[in-house]
Amino acid sequence: MTDNVQIKEEIINAVAELDEDKVIQLAEKALREGVMPEELLSTVNQGMLIVGQRYEEKTYFIADLIMAGVIFKEVLGLKRMQELFHSKNKKKIGKIVLGTVCGDLHDIGKDIFRGFAETNKFEVIDIGVDVPKEAFLKKIQEHKPDILGMSGILTYTVDTMKEVVDALKEAGLRETVKVIVGGSHLTASTADYIGADGFATDAYEGVKICLRWMESALEGGG
Ligand code: B12
């Protein structure tokens, strides 16, 4: 961890103010000055939380949420960030089918999870956003993944995720795949209600759980 406190604060403020040019300029500067890409992501995320608060307070509107999304995606697209997500290792350790559940269009957290998973040698079949349970089932039958990853940012997606897990059970597929759910509103008890094997409010933590699952499967622990 570096202690570039000032530049990080400037980035948080620029994201909160939706100042696209300034965010990109500061993000590039921060990376040049030694801020780690992972730290940059979490810094930008702090700015996003302020955008969300302003939306709740009705000082920001839907157009502002859209702008915040555009800014985050630009940061993710910076060369150094792409390098973070780029896996040179061709040998894969496991397969993940990943999607944002039905009714939810938020894909930034999903994309970050995908990036970290690919860097950690997973093959990821990303089936996008607003994915109906039937499509999850179809992709699981087709690709036979080790893990199903579901992202849901809107709070009601807890029920949508549960519907997918229930559908897996009905189709006799539940035991064939580990299920991880991700979203900042999730807790151990909601994950339990969903019937997931694991949950994470942070994409990197989620990937660490997936790595542990693959290790224990290799050791014969299932
Ligand atoms: C940008 C944004 C949008 C953009 C999304 C653009 C995009 N391409 O994703 C757009 C404009 C589309 C949008 C739309 C809406 N949004 Co919006 N949006 C946001 C905002 C500002 C940032 C979200 C974000 O990307 N955060 C950054 C990422 C990195 O965080 P994250 O997604 O949570 O991901 C992290 C974890 O959750 C986790 N994770 C995520 N997925 C996964 C998956 C796995 C497998 C794992 C392990 C981990 C994991 O890892 C990530 C961190 O490492 C938030 C505010 C906030 N505080 O988050 C509101 C927010 C999420 N939106 C909100 C709302 C209400 C809406 C709308 C309903 C608004 C409207 N009236 O139309 C619509 C819904 C559209 C829909 N059907 O989905 C509310 C949700 C409230 C709720 N309790 O459900 C929020 C919280 C704003 C608020 N405070 O009111 N939004």
Structure report:
The chain is an alpha/beta fold and 222 residues long. It has two domains: 5-85, Orthogonal Bundle (Methyltransferase, Methionine Synthase (B12-binding Domains), Chain A, domain 1), CATH 1.10.1240.10; 94-218, 3-Layer(aba) Sandwich (Rossmann fold), CATH 3.40.50. 58% of the residues lie in helices and 11% in strands. The chain contains ten helices and five strands, in the order H-H-H-H-H-E-H-E-H-E-H-E-H-E-H. It has helices at 5-16, 20-32, 37-56, 62-77, 79-85, 108-119, 133-143, 157-170, 188-194, 203-218; strands spanning 94-100, 122-126, 147-151, 178-182, 198-200. It has a five-stranded parallel beta sheet, sandwiched between helices. It is globular.
Q: Tell me how many strands there are.
A: 5
Oligomer class:
single chain
- Average pLDDT level: 94
Structural class category: alpha/beta
Please specify the SSE layout and strand pairing.
Elements: H1 5-16, H2 20-32, H3 37-56, H4 62-77, H5 79-85, E1 94-100, H6 108-119, E2 122-126, H7 133-143, E3 147-151, H8 157-170, E4 178-182, H9 188-194, E5 198-200, H10 203-218
Parallel strand pairs: 1-2, 1-3, 3-4, 4-5
Helix pairs in contact: 1-2, 1-3, 2-4, 3-4, 6-10, 7-8, 8-9
The protein binds cobalamin.
Cobalamin is lined by residues 45, 48-49, 51-52, 55-56, 62, 65-66, 68-69, 72, 103-110, 112-113, 149, 151, 153-155, 180, 182-184, 200-203, 206.
